[in-house]
Amino acid sequence: MLDMKVIRQDPDRVKAACRSRNKDLDAVVDRILELDAENRAVKTEAEALKARQNKASREIPAIKKAGGDIAPVMEEMKAIAEQVGALDRKSAELDAQQRELALTIPNIPHESVPIGADDSENVEIRRWGEPRRFDFEPKPHWEIGSALGILDPERAAKVTGKRFHFYKDTGARLERSIINYFLNTHTANGYTEIFPPFIANAASMTGTGQLPKFAEDMFKLEGLDYYLIPTAEVPVTNYHRDEILDGAALPIKYCAYSGCFRAEAGSAGRDTRGLIRQHQFNKVELVKFADPEKSYEELEELTNEAEKVLQGLGLPYRVVVLSSGDLGFSSAKTYDLEVWMPSYGRYVEISSCSNFESFQARRLQARFKRTPKDKAQLVHTLNGSGVAVGRTVAAILENFQNGDGSVTIPEALRPMMGCDRLTKK
């Protein structure tokens, strides 16, 4: 959520930032300002009445001492109390309306973010590795997985529905090995591992920006104030909600494995086959709480740390900075890591690394003090996929497939897999 001071002092900047994201929210910003002005007037009136209450309270002892009648003063105080109560209720109502609207305003893109309409205007930063040239016709990962007997979407569709998968035998072991490899790599690089709940309440979803904007993209538990998490970012970032952190301990770095659940509303017809766009998938997430003065340095490090696991697997990828039109709702700046997928003939997103600045922290009231005597200020939050596990499986199957139908396992996974190839049994 944006600082109300920013909306109040520079509404044109906020409106322009929204338009750069393809969102025309001029009317919303104007309405927020109207509510803000009305609310401030109400609070000013209430404060004046409270000052009169205090003055009257001080007058009563003097009136009593002089033998005067305090009844008129008491009657006045009663009337003022009723007025103050009504104004306080009105102010609370205006606060709620203002907050509800403010929650729909996206973050302001960082000045280094390229202005663009959509993902076609993302800017490539660098590449690592060279896409493999095959001396045979490469197959898509869903055909490879089916032929090896390690992926079974048909039975998953029977048991649950479309966009779910059964992993079987060495396929299940491959998924598990990748999760462990990611966690081991990140904990060795200074991240503290957390195993979070896979369910979060509405307050947590609001804190990280999923609510109210993206309610239709999530699975809500019927009759309960609970949601299946779309990413471990939600529970891990909320871990420090309503807390004041020790500035000397920043950055605080967590990594977490979780199942992720997404309704994928609005994605009909996109990536309907295979592991790229599932309703349920596994992911290892990286979350940072950083000093605002250093958060963009931390974003670069976070992105490099997500890259390390892809480099360790030998998967070719590229890094792009997202344009304003492709930027996530809460993010001020995002780098996407895109892995090469032979069946697509292009790079496909496998990780997003974002700096939210104070946008989430203001919702969460996650703050820090540089010294115990300092005033608490909002921390900056960052997160990145470290990385999506199902898409990594897909990338391994496609990039390391062999002409005989087998798949070579990356060296980093062989100790956990206990073999160097996936073959049909």
What topology emerges from the helices and strands here?
Layout: H1 4-9, H2 11-20, H3 26-65, H4 71-102, E1 123-128, H5 141-148, E2 151-152, H6 153-159, E3 166-167, H7 170-188, E4 192-194, E5 199-201, H8 202-207, E6 226-228, H9 233-237, E7 244-246, E8 252-261, E9 280-290, H10 295-313, E10 317-321, E11 333-341, E12 346-355, H11 359-364, E13 367-369, E14 377-378, E15 380-388, H12 389-399, E16 407-408, H13 414-417, E17 421-422
Parallel strand pairs: 4-8, 7-13
Antiparallel strand pairs: 1-10, 2-3, 5-6, 8-9, 9-15, 10-11, 11-12, 12-15, 13-14, 16-17
Helix pairs in contact: 3-4, 5-12, 7-12
Q: What's a concise summary of this model?
A:
It contains 13 helices and 17 strands. Helix content is 41%, strand content 20%.
- Quaternary structure type: single chain
Secondary structure class reads alpha+beta
Low-confidence stretches: none
Distance between the termini: 54 Å
Could you give the order of the helices and strands? HHHHEHEHEHEEHEHEEEHEEEHEEEHEHE
Q: How many DSSP-defined strands?
A: 17
Number of helices: 13
Q: How much of the polypeptide forms β-strand, as a percent range?
A: 15-25%
Q: Give the fraction of residues assigned to helices.
A: 40-55%
Shape: elongated
Average pLDDT taken over every residue: 95
> Major sheet: size, sense and barrel closure?
8 strands, mixed
Strand order of the largest sheet: 1-10-11-12-15-9-8-4
User: What's the gyration radius in Å?
Assistant: 27 Å
